[in-house]
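Structure (tokenized):
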């Protein structure tokens, strides 16, 4: 895929590098502004499987108990 894209970009190598960087920046910007906000409500991040009432508190040994 990347070789195909490299062959399709017009211009010499320095121009192709700049064009590919611009494409990467546009892709990341689209992901963060359109795709990720659209997908986020559909992901189960708020489905908690651990009940707080059944978990025991974590205790650490004191320094003077050595």
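Design, position by position:
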């Amino acid at each position: 895929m990347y070789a195909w894209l490299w062959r399709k970009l017009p211009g010499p190598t320095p121009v192709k590098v700049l064009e590919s960087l611009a494409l990467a920046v546009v892709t990341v910007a689209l992901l963060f502004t359109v795709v990720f906000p659209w997908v986020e409500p559909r992901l189960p991040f708020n489905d908690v499987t651990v009940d707080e009432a059944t978990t025991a508190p974590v205790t650490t040994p004191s320094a003077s108990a050595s």
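Reviewer-requested clarification: The helical segments are 2-8, 13-39. The chain has two helices and no strands.
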